[in-house]
Write a structure and sequence with these properties.
By secondary structure, the protein is an alpha+beta fold. The protein contains five helices and six strands. The chain is 31% helix and 19% strand.
Length: 219
Amino acid sequence: FEFCEPAFVVGNCLQIASDSHQYDRVYCGAGVQKDHEHYMKILLKVGGILVMPVEDQLTQIMRTGQNTWESKNILAVSFAPLVQPSKNDSGKPDSVGLPPCAVRNLQDLARIYIRRTLRSFIHDEMQAKGVPQRAPPRRKRKRAKQRINTYVFVGNQLIPQPLDSEEEEKMEEDNAGEETGRGAAREQETPPQNLLREKIMRLPLPEALKAYLTYFREK
């Protein structure tokens, strides 16, 4: 995916300037009171989705028209409430200005198109070679060690019987061998190959332009 570079603004979301543009997706990570619910909903474009906690329910709201919304509860949650707007010396709350919605410049659009074209070439080459696309590696969980106790019936009583020292040593050796095997396998795993970066670095371009195409990343 070609996501835009994020822009961050410090301020209270209840103090957003009234002339701010509307959004496709909005998430609020603090409890919203009922009297602020409509204020949050008008931040959406038609077709946009807002997710926020309202009255201890994580709620998803979709704007279906200029004055219509559809909402559904996702799950019960407990969030700290939104901080109420503070006022300046004049007694009025300071408004928070959001970054303007601007069209990308030609240089940025060219970078996106070049990366998209190279990615398409790589996909075609992989299909021609019959190489399946690799899924991202899953993180392996470390299995917790379990101690096994044996039990012996004596009359009508069930008495725990400790493991024999030789059996316990054998179990510890098996666990140690298993951990060693995992460590060796982890060392043999190679990092995922970044084919797009390799393709860019092989292009007959100046190094500065290659760095720009890779978003100045080193890996």
